[in-house]
Inverse folding.
């Protein structure tokens, strides 16, 4: 289960790099950056499945689902993951309405180095859930903290 949590953490690192600024001398692929954001939520939600199916754990699906349902960041994460997997949720979303990720807020800076250069792109995203905006980086960090607390609880 830690393998999946570590995978989610690597996607969180990608989000943090986007927020800090990514340098490229070849141009930026904003769709790929969005894919990394969405992939975080997919992999983060799948910590649930890994926790459930790990051989050395006695966790029950109802206990894991109850934990998700008690924590808004994990409810939003679950709905983003399931919504992207199924294109459209066919069951009631955990967060009442299907959340959406906004178009990124972007800022480009041009850097000249010697005879070349490139651009630094900073991106930030928000998730809208039930009419309320959530910063993606903050939401992702909260999800990781919650999973770590849950998985290390006695």
């Amino acid at each position: 289960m830690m393998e999946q949590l570590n995978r989610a953490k690597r996607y969180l690192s990608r989000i943090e790099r986007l927020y800090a600024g990514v340098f490229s001398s070849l141009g930026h692929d904003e769709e790929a950056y969005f894919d990394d954001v969405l992939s975080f939520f997919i992999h983060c939600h799948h910590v649930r499945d890994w926790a459930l199916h790990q051989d050395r754990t006695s966790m029950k699906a109802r206990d894991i689902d109850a934990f998700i349902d008690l924590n808004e960041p994990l409810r939003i994460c679950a709905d983003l993951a399931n919504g992207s997997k199924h294109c459209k949720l066919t069951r009631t979303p955990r967060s009442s309405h299907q959340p959406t990720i906004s178009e990124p807020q972007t800022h480009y800076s041009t850097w000249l180095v010697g005879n070349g250069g490139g651009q630094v792109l900073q991106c930030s995203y928000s998730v809208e859930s039930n009419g309320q905006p959530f910063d993606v980086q903050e939401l992702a960090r909260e999800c990781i903290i919650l999973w770590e607390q849950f998985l290390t609880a006695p």
Observations:
- The chain has one domain: 2-20+29-100+135-152.
- Residues 91 and 119 are 43 Å apart (CA to CA).
- The first helix runs from residue 2 to 20.
